[in-house]
Automatic annotation (TrEMBL):
It is an enzyme of class 2 (transferase). It is found in: Cytoplasm. Signal peptide: none annotated. The gene is aat. This is Leucyl/phenylalanyl-tRNA--protein transferase.
């Protein structure tokens, strides 16, 4: 019978392949949200997910949801919208705003899992250069965005939001095109859901994901890719 591992102060995780079948992927609990532990977790195919007043819980589900960049589904209407709209798309210009908004938007399926501790931990990772955001602006108003963690050339997506039609899809389109320009291969979506499936997210066995993650974690992006900047999305369309 598989048992759930309780983490202590040691920076170590059990192998992802011993995670529980039910609930799918629950691997361990406890520990902390230090940058060192979070980076070790993501590089091992593990991520934290828990609600307020719960212990920190660590997951590695099987199957795993990923978005192969070549599979991204950009509809004709979205491409036309991207070409014609006046929205500005930036990188790392408003990381704190993005994660704060993602935490405040009601979620039907996941509640308020972006807790205050999680927010502080990922803001810390951002300051250290490991967490990044894509923002969509209507003039000076932030209307959409997403954020995630980088492991080598893998973007581990955490959350996204929109306050205007197509805003989060524009953020995803910009991220996909940026990653493709850097010869990355996929985005880690953690778990597939109906919305992500419409964008091209698929499920693969955890073992295959871990192999691909290990390969891509040895790669690096070009210098300056994640510097705060405005993206010219139209150059890729």
């Amino acid at each position: 019978m598989l048992t759930l591992t309780k983490l202590d102060k040691q920076l170590i995780f059990p192998p992802a392949d011993i995670a529980l079948i039910e609930p799918n992927g629950l691997l361990a609990f406890g520990g902390d949200l230090s940058p060192e532990r979070l980076l070790l977790a993501y590089s091992s195919g593990i991520f934290p997910w828990f609600s307020q007043d719960e212990p920190i819980m660590w997951w590695s589900p099987d199957p795993r949801g990923i978005l192969p960049l070549e599979h991204f589904k950009c509809s004709k209407s979205l491409k036309k919208f991207a070409r014609n709209c006046d929205y500005k798309i930036t990188i790392n210009n408003a990381f704190e705003q993005v994660i704060d908004i993602c935490a405040s938007i009601p979620r039907n399926d996941s509640g308020t899992w972006i807790t205050a501790d999680m927010i502080n931990a990922y803001k810390n990772l951002h300051q250290l250069g490991h967490a990044h955001s894509v923002e969509v602006w209507n003039e000076n108003i932030l209307v959409g965005g997403l954020y995630g963690i980088i492991v080598g050339k893998v973007f581990c997506g955490e959350s996204m939001f929109h306050k205007a039609t197509n805003a989060s899809k524009l953020a995803m389109l910009a991220l996909v095109e940026l990653l493709k320009s850097q010869k990355a291969e996929f985005i880690d979506c953690q778990m597939q859901n109906p919305h992500l499936a419409t964008l091209g997210c698929i499920e693969i066995p955890r073992s295959k994901f871990l192999t691909q993650l290990a390969e891509q974690s040895q790669q690096t992006f070009e210098h300056g890719v994640w510097q705060p900047q405005t993206l010219n999305l139209k150059q890729w369309l």
